[in-house]
Design brief:
heterotrimer, A mainly alpha (286), B alpha/beta (245), C mainly alpha (315), A: 286 residues, mainly alpha, ABC transporter involved in vitamin B12 uptake, BtuC, B: 245 residues, alpha/beta, Rossmann fold, 2 domains, 6-stranded mixed sheet, 4-stranded antiparallel sheet, 9 helices, 10 strands, 26% strand, globular
Chain lengths: 286, 245, 315
């Protein structure tokens, strides 16, 4: 029972992070109608950004996180303005292929610049933990979980309360109508993609604290982010966090009750299950 | 009325609580032109999608040439001889006009013409018939509005359908163009095709339809000969009344 | 000139066939790789180029062909021919089994499902006893680069012939209609499910055969190399670069890009892959219909061809 509690806690802590990954994917998908196959690569880049902020500049990872997010926002903004805005109206096949190409570029750029070695962001408090009624809660993991929740809440508030947030939601609903109300779609798209990249970057940074990063972590994270975004519902930040929790707990359980090498297979099984269960009809979207 | 070409009984479609089409029943005889009218959101396009197989009905029967088709996939219905156009036109954008229409000739009723050269010849004839011949080699997405409608027609006709479902093919056309399309539809009927047509342009529907079926909020509120239906006070109130003000 | 165009293909094939007798071993070895990857590109072209379903998981079929052949030869001591058939059966079976559920998915759903499959396949194989778990398998050694070269060439010619048939057939017209608008294709009488599954199955067949030939040539295989996801990158980019949905585009794209990447790969690892990524991005933006269309378009409108492509879909 205590073991079960521990696994549940592990799953929840991991799930919060997964939720954060799904948020960026879902936001971009919902507003731009682009499924960003480079999302996992952006997560990976965020991880390296935070890693170098910590190792080279000595900034505490949790304090460096906003900096990494700003850098990723700028990268996302530029990508959207320079490349993606050119093909948002084209067939979905083209946006898939373009983001796939970007993914390849980022992965191998990272391999050249950062090498293929495993990296972990290792602040002094990593490995320290508190035990609550027999369940171990590592500080770093818990901190990452909290940050994920805070960011999801912030995103919710920004989309709901601010002018730009409302413009983003209006654009997601109806681009032409939003234009009539004076929304500049190019800018809104760039801000949205930038925000998606910043969220991916944050997720990557936190991932680097609780796990390991290599240039190749992106592909599976892209697939997972996609599934989480579907599970949670695209335009509901808190729902997406819920989707992340589902996947996190499922993986933690799989790792316990089956051989740990099966976790990837389980999450892939879940992926196909979610996809084939006709998400479009579940969520009422095309 | 002679033996109907097809018949719809108690047709109902619900989308998560919203009833788009409720208990609609009607028959269409061979070579008839039946108009489907009603205000926006009355469920007209839903009915066409249910008949063509793009949507699956919640309840009810669709009988085509004596055969239940309500559970058949869309492509099987097309092979039985049901062709449709889309309100939001669906050309194959990257293909030439000729290639677009050739797809119709290659598939469609009875599986179509399997030989590609002969299918192309047939497509050319339909392009001539719809007046698109000179646009044959253009890409479909380069066509202007009226030509796109003609293409939508030609694609459906090349399938050699027995029943043609036309979804607002005249919206956005000028008076002259509407007249052209009316003549085109009459010509199609002369070839022995039965036609179910959704239309907002009243002038056209008056000249075209033998009978009308009026929908309002998914309910069938009137059915009968065109001139009689258009005098029906319920129809005037539900639909035409608003327009005359 | 058009009358003699069909002659170009057999002449090119014959020219390629005599290469081993006039060049060095290194060139022949490079040639085997290039021909096999061109076959993979051509196979991808059927599902990705004609039907418009961006499969990022065709490496799975290649890997299954590799493993099927290896298991048959190394574990069951079958002949190479039976091994190839066994590998092909595995690849085709996977396409049927996996294709029927996932081809019901469209656009991104399909893409992600294939991406996921490619990502886990090596992990799955590493748990299978007869596949040598994560250590891999060693096949009987057979030295004969020329034979492997000719086999690869025959396979590429067969794949290209198949695509040439598809491009002119009713089947191909159906696939293209699905690519352009699947709903419209369906109401015009095209059995879209059967068509898509058939396309994926044919793609799987050629990919698996390529894997089988490669396995016997290279004699050692393990999960990481057999199910290398970067193979998907190459298939996609070569097809895209050459011309998706055309007969010769993927072959041309594969042969050109293989040569370029061979040069780049000698510089540093990863440079070639980075180059591929850049080519994908540039191709989607500047020449979405590939090299063949570019040549034609550039002749017609010069530099405006690129400008027009960039402007067409921008917001």
């Amino acid at each position: 029972m205590q073991l079960f509690g521990q696994i549940l806690v592990n799953g929840i802590l991991l799930g919060g992070l997964y939720g954060l990954m799904g948020l960026g994917m879902g936001l971009v998908w919902g507003v731009l109608k682009i499924v960003n196959l480079a999302h996992g690569a952006l997560i990976m880049l965020g991880g390296y950004a935070l890693y170098y902020l910590y190792t080279k500049a000595g900034i505490d990872p949790f304090l460096g996180l906003p900096l990494a997010m700003v850098a990723m926002f700028v990268l996302g903004y530029v990508l959207q303005t320079a490349l993606l805005n050119l093909i948002v109206r084209s067939a979905q096949l083209n946006t898939l292929l373009l983001t796939f190409g970007l993914d390849v570029v980022f992965v191998y750029m990272a391999q050249l610049l950062f090498s293929a070695d495993f990296r972990t962001i290792n602040p002094p408090y990593a490995g320290k933990n508190v035990t609550i009624s027999g369940v171990v809660v590592p500080y770093a993991q818990f901190g990452a979980f909290l940050v994920a929740l805070v960011l999801a809440g912030l995103l919710f508030l920004v989309l709901d309360k601010t002018r730009t947030g409302r413009a983003i939601r209006a654009t997601a609903q109806n681009l032409i109508a939003a234009r009539l109300y004076g929304v500049n779609p190019k800018r809104i798209y760039a801000i949205t993609f930038g925000t998606g990249a910043a969220l991916a970057g944050a997720a990557g940074g936190l991932y680097g604290i609780v796990s390991q990063i290599t240039p190749y972590i992106g592909v599976t994270l892209t697939a997972k982010s996609f599934v989480i975004a579907i599970l949670g519902g695209l335009d509901k930040p808190l729902g997406v966090i819920g989707g992340g929790l589902v996947l996190g707990i499922a993986e933690a359980m799989a790792a316990l009750y089956l051989d740990p090498t099966y976790t990837d297979i389980i999450s892939f099984g879940l992926l196909v299950l979610v996809l084939v269960a006709r998400p479009a009809q579940l969520l009422g979207r095309a | 009325m002679t033996e109907p070409l097809f018949e719809v009984r108690g047709l109902t479609k619900r989308f998560r609580g919203l009833t788009a089409v409720s208990n609609v029943t009607f028959r269409v005889a061979a070579r008839e032109i039946v108009g489907l009218i009603g205000p926006n959101g009355a469920g007209k396009t839903t009915i066409i999608s249910l008949i063509s197989g793009t949507l699956v009905p919640t309840a009810g029967d669709i009988v085509f040439e004596g055969r239940h088709i309500e559970r058949l996939p869309a492509y099987r219905r097309a092979r039985l001889g049901i062709g449709r156009t889309f309100q939001v036109m669906k050309p194959f954008p990257g293909l030439s006009v000729l290639e677009n229409v050739t797809v119709g000739a290659l598939f469609g009723t009875g599986g179509g013409e399997r030989n590609r050269t002969r299918a192309e010849e047939r497509a050319r004839e339909w392009l001539k018939f719809t007046g698109l011949e000179r646009r044959m080699d253009q890409r479909a997405d380069a066509l202007g509005g009226p030509d796109r409608k003609r293409l939508e027609f030609a694609k459906a006709l090349a399938m050699n359908p027995k029943l043609l479902l036309l979804d607002e093919v005249m919206a956005g056309l000028t008076h002259v163009e509407v007249d052209e399309v009316v003549e085109l539809i009459k010509k199609i009927r002369e070839k022995g095709v039965t036609i179910l047509v959704i239309e907002h342009v009243m002038k056209a529907i008056r000249r075209l339809a033998d009978r009308l079926l009026v929908l309002h909020h998914g309910q069938q509120i009137a059915e009968g000969r065109t001139d009689e239906v258009l005098r029906d006070p319920r129809v005037v109130e539900a639909y035409l009344g608003k327009r005359r003000q | 000139m058009n009358r003699y165009r069909w002659l170009a293909l057999p002449i090119a094939a014959a020219a390629l066939a005599v290469v081993p007798w006039f060049t060095s071993d290194t060139i022949v070895q490079y040639g085997i790789n290039a021909l096999l990857v061109a076959t993979l590109a051509q196979a991808w072209n059927i599902i990705g180029g004609f039907s418009g379903y961006p499969s990022f998981g065709n490496s799975v079929f290649y890997g299954l062909g590799t493993y099927g052949t290896a298991i048959a030869m190394a574990q069951l001591h079958w002949s190479f021919g039976s091994g190839l058939v066994f590998g092909a059966v595995l690849g085709v079976a996977c396409a049927l089994l996996f294709g029927i559920p996932i081809l019901r998915l469209r656009g991104p759903y399909f893409a992600i499902a294939t991406l996921g499959l490619a990502a886990v396949m090596s992990a799955i194989t590493a748990t299978v006893e007869i596949a040598g778990k994560n250590i891999g398998l060693i096949l009987p050694l057979f030295r004969g680069d020329t034979l492997f070269y000719e086999l690869s060439l025959i396979l590429l010619v067969a794949a290209t012939g198949t695509v040439a048939w598809i491009a002119r057939s009713r089947f191909g017209a159906g696939l293209v209609a699905i690519r352009e608008d699947e709903d419209a294709a369906q109401v015009m009488g095209i059995n879209t499910t059967t068509y898509k599954v058939a396309a994926l199955t044919v793609a799987a067949l050629f990919s698996a055969l390529a894997g089988g030939i490669h396995a016997y040539w290279i004699t050692f295989i393990d999960p990481a190399s057999a199910f290398d996801p970067s193979l998907n990158v190459r298939m996609v980019i070569m097809t895209l670069f050459g011309g998706p949905g055309t007969v010769l585009g993927p072959v041309l794209g594969a042969l050109i890009l293989s040569a370029v990447s061979e040069v780049l790969a000698s510089q540093a690892t990863g440079v070639a892959s980075l180059f591929y990524g850049i080519v994908i991005v540039a191709a989607v933006l500047l020449m979405p219909k590939g090299l063949l269309d570019l040549v034609q378009g550039f002749r017609d409108s010069g530099w405006r061809y690129f400008v027009d492509n960039v402007r067409r879909y921008r917001i």
